[in-house]
Amino acid sequence: MARSVKSWGMILRYVTKDECLALLDKAEDKGLVLQPGNSQQAFCICLCCGCCCGVLTSAKKFEKPAELFATNYYAVIDHDKCSGCGICIKRCQMDAIKRIDKTRVELNADRCIGCGLCVTKCSKEAVLLKRKKKKTKPPMNIELLYLSILKRRAGKKKMIVNLLKLMLGKPL
C-alpha cells in the first residue's frame, strides 16, 4: 500500500487516527471551522476560517447563512453565566455574535452554523450547542450529494434527462 500520493503538485501522505485527532484539536484551538465532506461516507475534512475559505466567506455575505448549512446544532448563550468577555465574538467565523454592552453579548441564530467554536473556549460555560428539532441526515456518498443538488437546482425531470444523456454519451 502506498504511503504517499502526489496530487495537484503536492505530496500527500496517510496519517494515523491519533495524528488526525491531534490535527483536529489544533485546528479547533486555532479557531478553524471543521467541515467534513457532506456525506455519511466522509471523503475529506476542511479546516476553514471566515476570512480565506470560499465557502465561509461566500456564506457570510448572506443575511441568514444558517440556512445554507446542513447542521443539526445551533448555539445558545446563557446570559446569567455570560461575563461578556467577548472570546465567543472573536471565535465566531460567521459574525453571529455581537456585543450588546460591556457585560452581554447576543447571538443571531440566523447567522449561526452550529460549528461550536464559541463553546469550546468559553471559560464560564455560558455558550452551549443545542440539537435542532428537525434532524438533517446527509446523503450516503458524494455521488448522491451531487445528484440531490442537481435535482434541487434543475428539477427532477431535467435531472433525469441529463442523466440519460450522460448514459448515452451525449453532450448536456
Question: How do you describe this structure in short?
Answer:
This protein has 172 residues and is of the alpha+beta class. 31% of the residues lie in helices and 20% in strands. The protein has helices at residues 17-29, 54-60, 87-91, 117-120, 142-154, 156-167, and strands spanning 4-7, 10-13, 33-36, 45-48, 73-77, 97-101, 104-107, 127-131.
What does this 3D model show about the protein?
- The protein has 172 residues and is α+β, with helices and mostly antiparallel strands.
- The protein folds into two domains: 4-138, Alpha-Beta Plaits (2-Layer Sandwich), CATH 3.30.70; 140-172, no CATH class.
- Helices cover 31% and strands 20% of the residues.
- The protein contains six helices and eight strands, in the order E-E-H-E-E-H-E-H-E-E-H-E-H-H.
- It has a two-stranded antiparallel ribbon with strand order 1-2. It has a two-stranded antiparallel ribbon with strand order 3-4. Strands 5-8 form a two-stranded antiparallel sheet.
- The protein starts with a strand and ends in a 5-residue tail after the last helix.
